[in-house]
Amino acid sequence: MNNEQFNNRDVSENGYYLVDIEDYPTDGWGKFKRVVKRTFRGELFVGLWVVLREMIRFDIHTVSYPQEKMPIGPRYRAVHEMKRLWESDAERCIGCGLCEKICISNCIRIDTKIDENSRKEVSEYSINLGRCIFCGYCAEVCPELAITHGGEYENASDQREHFLIYEDMLTPLDKMKAGTQLEFEGFGAITPHEDERVKKTPLAY
Amino acid sequence: MINFTIDGISVEAQKGETILTVARKNDIYIPTMCYISKTTPCASCRMCVVEAEGVEGFILSCNTPPTEGIEITTNTSALENERVNIMKLYDVNHPLECGVCDKSGECDLQNKTLEFGVSQQNFSARDQSRKIEDWGLINYDPSLCILCEKCVHVCNEVIGDDAIEVKFGGYSSTIIPKNNDTLDCTFCGECIAVCPVGALVSSDFKYSANAWELSRVPATCTHCSAGCSLEYETRHSGINGADSIYRVKNNYEFVNLCGAGRFGFDFNNQAEKDEAAFNKAVEAIKSAKAIRFSSMITNEEAHILELLREKLGLKLFNEDARKFQEFMTAYSSVSGKLHHSGSLDAIKQTDAAIIIGSRIATDNPAVRYALTTASKHNGAKIVYAHPMEDTLVQNIVTQFMKYEVGTEEGVIAVLADAILQDADLSEDERSFFDDLDLGYLYAESNIGDEELRDMMQSFKRAKNRVLILGNDLMAHERAVNIAKLAALIEKYSDFSLVVVPSEVNTIGVSLINTLDKDEDIIDVVGYNAKGNFAISCFEYANLSVPALNSQEGTFVNIDNRVLPTNVALSFDGYTLNDLAVACGISSENTIDYTKELNPNRGFKNIEFDNLENFLTPYGEDERGYLLDEVVCEADGTIEELDDLPEFNGTVIYHSNPVLQFNTYTNNSKQLEKDRTLRGSAQFAAAARISDGDTVEISFDGETVIRNFKLETDLKGTIALNPTFDSVVDASKYRFEKSKIVRVINE
User: Fold this and answer.
1) What are the Cα distances from residue B239, in Å, to A125, A155, B450?
2) Which chain A residues are within 8 Å of B236, Cβ to Cβ?
3) Which of A7, B570, B610, B622 is found 20 to 30 A from A112 (Cα to Cα)?
4) Which ipTM value was assigned to this complex?
5) Domain of residue A129, residue span
6) Has residue B671 got a pLDDT over 70?
7) Predicted local confidence at residue A2, as pLDDT
8) How close is the nearest chain B Cα to the Cα of A94, in Å?
């Protein structure tokens, strides 16, 4: 499909026609007439008839949520996840702070410190899901593929504080041990066959 | 003047300039890795290579002066190839930890690697295991180091600590502490500033934030009268925390910063609007007889205090600024102008300097750095006159002139006599010198005729001479006459004069306020100073007001430059301006007063928001403005010298340890707080105390308990007593006859 037909805004072509919409009533009498007309024209029964017809046909397209759920695409951008390294199970996040910097709704906060092994450690990390617009910039900018979007879109809770701390996002160790951590294929993911394109550094030994 | 061309553009060079400096002045780009404007060229990176017509091979533009008519090319494919190869060599085994490295985002290696498009490597070397060194406030990671030697050059040529050196060993070369296992220096941290990679970093800052997360606030350092330019870098702390300062940076290409400025930034305070305390403060001011304040204050605040004084008929107490004011008034009465003529830049350019009455390395590190620069770059002869030697300036001082404590008036008189021997003095002035009893002065001050002759001999060829006067002269009983004698030297010789004020805005206060002599009365409101009602940014405050890194305003520094400073961290409580408004002096903001500062004292009517605060890429200072020259009446006459006093027995000198200046630095987390009385073995023997003893020091009606620390660097019978912890009044004459008694601990 190309975009040309959409870019052509010449209304005299492509079978465009003006929808006939009557003017809104301005005075009280006109408004009263509209109410009466809408009430007694039987539009309600048109809708009810569609429901009845589809019920009898047994050709139903809705799923019975929450018992049933629709499958979602791998690039779906729901609640964030923090991935671990396959090699060591260590956290991928290096605390560079780029996600915090790029976040356009200013909902990520990160704090880092030097740990006892003289390595950089993420000491605090939070995403305010109430502010997050799920734009995916954080996942795209992450140099380590650490923060990604997951498929978890159900995030109702009775406490605002439940949204969202580092530990909740991090892949649990048992899941990691079982090898079931899913890689995200959306924004920022490695392109296929990346390994073959990397040039090797010569080694002296 | 030498005319030549770079890339076909005709340029001209002054004598002493190199091809690189000329190129930079003309906006022609030559890449460098190791070049730093304030030192002599390190010439270690070889990135600055250029080609010259008729010269075979490449030449280093950083240390080659141009010759007349030479044609320089800066970008041929051969040069490009050379530079790319240098970058590749720099990148050999450089750890790929940019994601966590503190320098990432502002790293020269990162920038240049991308600039030259080094995407693959064909050099290699066997990697080595290298340990990260912990040098206290500074951390050194040898595997990140690219051996550009900037740190070594700055430490040696500009700072004067000479504490680090290169350990040569081919690929395994590293930077090591000189003659020591660990770093033993004044911890100015300038090596951190100049390091182009993440090899030298602040241990406190390490891994706590990244360059791209920090907001920069250009400001002015508040710790001493140099008023160095710096940038506070702020960011939120923790995930819910308010902003805090993470580190301080400076424009290391042209200016310096000492460790107090670099590491002592966390003196900010916070308060809510406490209305009850505010009302009490207003009452206290209205009913007060005087306001006592410190010189760590902006010009605008000083102006508000002056307005309060006029409106409420108060007295203003500030001994430090009053003494400076008195000194400068006496100076003006002879010199005929309001401000001293010298500046830090003049000290940098000097080739002959005399410094009297200050332990300058700790009183004002910027002056010390300027003197070091002068010594290393111009071979300046530096005469250091003081009763105590100072090991920190030992390597730059060419002549130490030891005088007896208290004889400053005699010292300046004999100096003036020596310097002004052939000067065209007025009759009265000539007769003053003719009447001097030189024999008595030489004997009492302990400065010999020969020493003075040596000095004059060594100064003979000097072109730019500077006389630097320290706080001992201003706080001296005979300060007025000393100032007049100093003014005579400035007036009739080619010496320029620098008077070193003790606090950040001592000059500003002395120009703005009408000060009274401090009296020990009740009903005194203290503004960042002692008083019955304390309005202050310190812990003991009855009403909290913002510290200087939460304030905007201006200072006047040692260069007589009005320097703007900005708010790094917000403050929610009340300010002095709110109090003034409540007392009926109406102005919306404190900085509205910037343009109202008194033009008769040299201030210009410029709005605060129109003041710049930066250095240009060519190193020109565009911070604030210089005070206008003000002419005053020269009607002062020099008095006859008083008898020189004698200080016998155990004498202490009020002098802070390195990196300590005031309550701000005392509140700082990173700076070492050495509150001991520091003395030599000779002093310990005279006072019959030994290292580690708790001693009771009594002087001039005061008693202080301190621990005694024996310092091998010190000599003589004078011990150093710190003032930064506000136990003693820092504005007094700094030498003190004292009685020292050992306290027996039970």
Assistant:
1) 7, 21, 68
2) 109
3) B570
4) 0.81
5) 80-189
6) yes
7) 65
8) 6
CATH number of the domain that residue A129 is part of = 3.30.70.3270
Six-digit token string for B154: 């700055």
The answer for B584, left when phi > 0, alpha when psi is -120 to 50, beta otherwise, is left
Q: Average pLDDT, stretch B688-706?
A: 91
Greatest CA span in chain B, whole angstroms?
A: 84
In a domain, B249, yes or no: yes
Tens digits of per-residue pLDDT, A75-92? 888 889 999 998 888 999
Q: Which residue has the higher pLDDT, B122 or B374?
A: B374
- Most A-contacting residue of B239, B240, B244, B246 (CB-CB within 10 A), to test interface: B239
Instruction: Closest CB to B125: pick one of A95, A199, A204.
Output: A204
Structural domains in chain B (count): 5
Q: Does one domain contain both A88 and A171?
A: yes
The string of pLDDT tens digits covering residues B250-305 is 999 999 999 999 999 999 999 999 999 999 999 999 999 999 999 999 999 999 99
CATH number at B227 reads 3.30.70.20
Asked if A97's CB is within 8 angstroms of B209's CB, the reply is yes
Choose, out of B207, B237, B246, the residue to mutate when testing the contact with A (most A CBs < 10 Å).
B207
- The answer to whether residue B689 is domain-embedded is yes
Instruction: Tell whether B256 is covered by a domain.
Output: yes
Instruction: State how far Cα B486 lies from the chain centre.
Output: 23
DSSP B202-249: ETTTTTT--GGGPEEEEEE--SSTT--EEEEEEEE-TTT--EEEEEEE
B481 shares its domain with B332: yes
A43 lies in the same domain as A89:
no
Q: A114: which chain B residues are within 8 Å (Cβ-Cβ)?
A: 206-208
Residue A111 lies in a domain: yes
Cis amide bond preceding B645, omega within 30: no
Model pLDDT for residues B185-205, shown as the tens digit of each residue? 999 999 999 999 999 999 999
Among candidates B120, B124, B207 on the partner chain, residue whose Cβ is nearest the Cβ of A114: B207
Q: Are residues A105 and A149 in the same domain?
A: yes
Domain's final residue, options B450, B471, B499: B499
- In this structure, the answer to whether residues B400 and B492 fall within a common structural domain is yes
**Rounded average pLDDT over B118-144:** 91
Q: Tell me, yes or no, whether A141 and A51 share the same domain.
A: no
Instruction: Give counts: helices (H), strands (E), chain B.
Output: 22, 33
- pLDDT tens digits for B41-87? 999 999 999 999 989 999 999 999 999 999 999 999 999 999 999 99
Span B92-102, mean pLDDT?
91
Using left for φ > 0, alpha for ψ between -120 and 50, and beta otherwise, residue B739 falls in beta
Which residues in chain A are closer than 8 Å to B104, comparing Cβ atoms?
A: 96
Q: Name the strand (E) or helix (H) holding B121.
A: none
Domain count of the fold of chain A:
2
| Minimum distance, in Å, between the CA of residue A65 and any CA atom of chain B | 36
How far is the CA of B460 from the CAs of A23, A162, B4, B422, B457, in angstroms? 101, 78, 35, 13, 5
B592 in any annotated domain: yes
pTM for this entry: 0.90
Specify whether B487 is located in the same domain as B518: no
CB contact set of B248 (below 8 Å; sequence gap of 6+): B230, B231, B232, B233, B257, B261, B262, B263, B265
Residues A99 and A184 in one domain: yes
Do B723 and B694 share a structural domain?
A: yes
| Domain carrying residue B723 | 651-743
Same domain for A158 and A112 = yes
To the nearest whole Å, the CA of A96 is away from the closest chain B CA by 6
Distance from CA of B238 to the nearest CA of A (A): 5
The alpha-carbon gap from A109 to the nearest alpha carbon of chain B, in Å, equals: 5
Q: For residue A92, is it within any domain?
A: yes
- Chain B: which residues have CB within 8 Å of chain A? 99-100, 104, 119-127, 132, 206-210, 212-213, 236-240
Chain A residue with the nearest C-alpha to that of B99: A96
In a domain, A86, yes or no: yes
Nearest CB among A118, A120, A201 relative to B132 is that of A118
Q: Is residue B365 helix, strand or coil?
A: helix
